[in-house]
Amino acid sequence: MAAVSLRGVLTVSTVNVNGLRAAARKGFVEWLSATRADVVCLQETRAELDQLPGHLRQPDGWHPVFAHCEVRGRNGVGLLTREAPGAVRIGFGDPEFDGSGRYVEVTLPGLVVASLYLPSGDVGTPRQEEKERFMASFLPYLVELREKATAGGREVLVCGDWNIAHREVDLKNWKANRRSSGFLPEERAWLDRVFGDVGYVDVVRRLHPDVAGPYSWWSYRGRAFDNDSGWRIDYHVATPGLAERAVRAVVERAPSYDTRWSDHAPVTVTYQ
User: Per the database record, which ranges form the Endonuclease/exonuclease/phosphatase domain (predicted)?
Assistant: First the structure.
């Protein structure tokens, strides 16, 4: 099996599966068998290893790493890599969140890649307060991660469901959602810091600077999918050196509502 290296071509996909076992029954397994990705980042797997059948726990041709939530049936993230990873880290050093199944990272040649499931929040509820605490704690870790990776001669890629639409072009009905979690001014300002002060790059937006979306999540309610009334909340967030090597980004949107296996679609980027 060829080594994953920044000297060659690296293709990375990220997708919130909205329940790994449910997605597998609807088409995820077939998608995984067909993908040419070298790395697949999963969010909201909602399962512990003992709940997964063998073909999901150990997919053929992949080296899996999963981080489940201590609350059974919630959250959960994973990474599938063609090459066996080096170091593995679950959580980012915050006791409140390290057992919540929201962050896992691995080291590959020249690269640290992570799968992130940032809390979704709900304005005026404890869920929003949890999201705010997560953001406050995670930002310093992003700084630390970049500094350590740079010192070690590696790039960083944090993929996943960030649950924030950064700009007006990142969601169809932005005017109606100005007071909704996921598009609050303070959440968007936090992403400003990630992409400004901390120095990471929104890879898909860099490749598609002037387009609406491309959206990666559509509500199951109404005709959101059919009308392409979506949100772009699934990101590839990279250090500048890696972002500059991105040559192609696509959202693998299902051809029709009834062929979806998640309310999200895979976001796939090829790095040269």
Answer: 14-264
**What is the pTM assigned to this prediction?**
0.95
Measured between alpha carbons, how far is 173 from 211 in angstroms, rounded to an integer?
15
State yes or no: 210 annotated in a binding site.
no
Residue 109 contacts residue 3 (beta carbons within 8 Å): yes
Does 16 count as an annotated binding residue? yes
User: Where in the sequence numbering do the catalytic residues fall?
Assistant: 117, 161, 264
Does a cis peptide bond (omega within 30 degrees of 0) precede residue 266?
A: no
d(CA 9, CA 21): 30
CB-CB neighbours of 41 under 10 Å: 31
Name the pLDDT band for 8 (thresholds 50, 70, 90): confident
State pLDDT tens for residues 21-60: 999 999 999 999 999 999 999 999 999 988 999 999 999 9
Domain 10-271: state its class: alpha beta
